[in-house]
Amino acid sequence: MIEQFLKPATVDEAVRLKRQYGDKAVFMAGGSKLNAAPTRTDKKVAISLAGLRLDAVALDNGQLRLGATLTLQQLIDDSRVPVALREAAGFVYSRNLRNQSTLGGELCAKQDEAVLTPVLLALDAELIYADGAVVALERFLAGGADSADALLVALRLPDPERPCATRKVARSVAGLRVLTAAVALSSAGPCIAVEGVTPTPLRLRDIEARALNDAALEQAVSAAVAPEDDLRGSVAYKRYIAGIVVADLLADLSSGTPTARKEI
């Protein structure tokens, strides 16, 4: 339970406070994850990021920088944000929640349902920290960049114009997702990412490296994912739908008519 709420005026002050309080403290932006199950915090000290102005969107030499405290609704409303990422933010059905949840919070929570992450993986997103460190999102998700004092200040998309499409499959608008997938087309070939049917959100790099037709791609994706039986569907269904969705997204992009739909 949070007992102290600190409001630093600068990024340097926020980092200093985290070092001072150590494992007793947590950075807080919108609070949608820290104040609700299953990601409710047990830390005693909250260090607010609200006054640090980390919600800017900026284009620099063709790269797009997204502030860590941008809310999901701000992502949706900004035309500079790639269409697929804006649509992925819309997969969070509640506007009230979108107005509270932040981009950085969604990533740092590493929660079971991570509908933004496949698009960000397909776009080779990088995390930028207060100390200047830059870490690939893929490495962060693999646990290779965790630090008790690290303050995420922004995400960077090196190629925001990369064609990209995403899709969420769910039983209902407000229901838990079965899976979320994203496909992008880079100069090196397709970039394929999924979540919900793997233990953590994952780039399917082994499949990306192979030139596969639609049928072979469906089979390869189905074999590569590792879903579990639960109320959202059986293993067989999840393997099947993962292959279908990825193949459809790639076909849409290859034909020049990318779509990003939520299946219900």
From TrEMBL:
NCBIfam families: Se_sel_red_FAD. It comes from the Bacteria. It holds the Pfam family FAD_binding_5. Residues 1-162 form the FAD-binding PCMH-type domain. GO terms for molecular function: FAD binding; oxidoreductase activity. This is Putative selenate reductase FAD-binding subunit. Keywords: FAD, Flavoprotein. InterPro entries: CO_DH_flav_C, CO_DH_flav_C_dom_sf, Diverse_Substr_Oxidored, FAD-bd_PCMH, FAD-bd_PCMH-like_sf, FAD-bd_PCMH_sub1, FAD-bd_PCMH_sub2, Molybdo-cont_Rdtase_FAD-bd_su.
